[in-house]
Amino acid sequence: METDEPAEALYEATDTLVLDVGYQPVKIIRWQRAICMSVLEKVEVLAHYAWAIHTVNEAFPAPAVVRLLTPLRLRPQVVRFSRRNVYIRDDHRCQYCGEVFGASDLTLDHVVPRVAGGKTSWTNVVAACRPCNRRKGGRTPEQAGLTLPRPPSRPRWSPQALLPRVPERVPDAWRDWIFATP
Ligand SMILES: [Zn+2]
Predict the structure, then answer these.
(1) Same domain, yes or no, for 27 and 66?
(2) What domain range includes position 33?
(3) Ligand 1 centre and the CA of 130: distance in Å?
(4) What's the 168 CA to ligand 1 centre distance in angstroms?
(5) pLDDT of 97-108, one tens digit each?
(6) Averaged pLDDT, 40-63
(7) Which residues have a beta carbon within 5 Å of ligand 1, which is an ion?
(8) Which three-class secondary structure string do you get for the chain?
(9) 146 neighbors 136 (Cβ within 8 angstroms)
(10) Would 65 be classed as within a structural domain?
(11) How far, in Å, is the centroid of ligand 1 from the Cα of 139?
(12) How many whole angstroms from 53 Cα to the centroid of ligand 1?
């Protein structure tokens, strides 16, 4: 059956975007795997890349977008805890001053500091800019006179979290499927 791709996996321009039966993006896989799924008739190919895969006898265009032919099994989807996913959950916004930053200017802040037993988890870690992180230091928000807009929580799974948010970094063949809004 399917293996879960890590949520922060980097895609390559040769990777294949997978849609569910309802044409919603669900994951990004290696093209080799897309070929296998196509051969096994698990998917239909909706878009191709301009380059082709050559076998001894023939050449066929590489799959850029495929659609699953059977519904996904319903199961709880878990968003892995990672730096990138915390930033996405918090909209790249420092949770203390409310400003938006690039990933390189954000840090992970332990709401309850580690020295006080705070865990590295969805419910105790937020995105914070460097000045706010420094200002807070090893204190709780209350002690530092800072407030959180909401208690941090585990995000619900979203296929969008898997996908590159920057349009220029998306293969052309994917665009219609990722950025089209119903
Ligand atoms: Zn800040």
Answers:
(1) yes
(2) 16-75+166-178
(3) 7
(4) 28
(5) 999 999 999 999
(6) 90
(7) 94, 96-97, 129, 132
(8) CCCCCCCCCCCCCCCEEEECCCCCEEEEECHHHHHHHHHCCCEEEEEEEEEEEECCCCEEEEEEEEEECCCCCCCCCCCCCCHHHHHHHCCCECCCCCCECCHHHEEEEECCCHHHCCCCCCCCEEEEEHHHHHHHCCCCHHHHCCCCCCCCCCCCCCHHHHCCCCHHHCCHHHHHHHCCCC
(9) yes
(10) yes
(11) 15
(12) 49
- What separation in Å is there between the alpha carbon of 22 and the centre of ligand 1? 40
pTM greater than 0.85 (yes/no): no
Residue 140, domain CATH: 1.10.30.50
User: Does any domain span residue 3?
Assistant: no
Q: Are residues 67 and 23 in the same domain?
A: yes
Give residue 9's pLDDT: 39
Q: Is residue 151 part of a domain?
A: no
Q: Could you tell me if 92 and 65 lie in one domain?
A: no
Expressed in angstroms and rounded, the spacing between residue 32 Cα and the centre of ligand 1 is 43
Does the pLDDT of residue 123 top 90, yes or no?
yes
Looking at the structure, do residues 139 and 104 belong to the same domain, yes or no?
yes
User: Does any domain span residue 154?
Assistant: no
CA of 136 to the centre of ligand 1 (A): 10
Which amino acid does the sequence have at 11?
Answer: Y
What is the number of domains present in the chain? 2
